[in-house]
Each structure stands twice: as structure tokens, then as C-alpha cells.
Amino acid sequence: MTVKINKWGNSYGIRLSKQILKSLNLQENSEIDIEIRDGKIILTPKKSLQSLLSQITPQNVHHEVDFGDMQGKEML
Fold it and tell me: First-to-last CA distance in the chain?
């Protein structure tokens, strides 16, 4: 898909179609990460804590790790 870069105030932007947003489960004001890699602009949906926590299952949960007794002036 080809889109044009447009001037918006003092910045520039691109428009994302409703179909693209829907396919990524994004909506107005959704946050995304923007990264430049190998001369490409990478837009990645930023997952919310709630979304990440909802993916925890009994099969993939990490159990508590025992790091041993406290040392020095540690407080828990």
C-alpha cells in the first residue's frame, strides 16, 4: 500500500486506513512505537499492561524465583 506524507501544522504525518487499524485492533489515540531500522520506518502497536497480563495462562506463567537471603541493606 502506498500513502503520501502530508504536512500537519509544523509536523508531517501519514494516514492509516480504518482497515489497517481494525486489523491491528487499534483505534484513535492508540499508542504505537516508531523505530528506524535499516532505512525503514517500523510502526509497532504498543501493548497495554492489561493486554499483556491477559495473555498469562497456567501453561506459560513464570513461577517465583528464589534469589537467596538478603545481603547488605536490601529491604523488600
Answer: 52
Show me where the domains of the chain are located. Answer: 6-53
How far is 43 from 13, CA to CA, in rounded Å?
Answer: 13
| pTM of the predicted model as reported, rounded to 2 decimal places | 0.57
Three state DSSP letters for 3-66: CCCEEECCEEECCCCHHHHHHCCCCCCCCEEEEEECCEEEEEECCCHHHHHCCCCCCCCCCCCC
Q: Taking the domain 6-53, which CATH number applies?
A: 2.10.260.10
* Tens of pLDDT, residues 37-67: 999 999 999 988 888 888 899 999 988 998 8
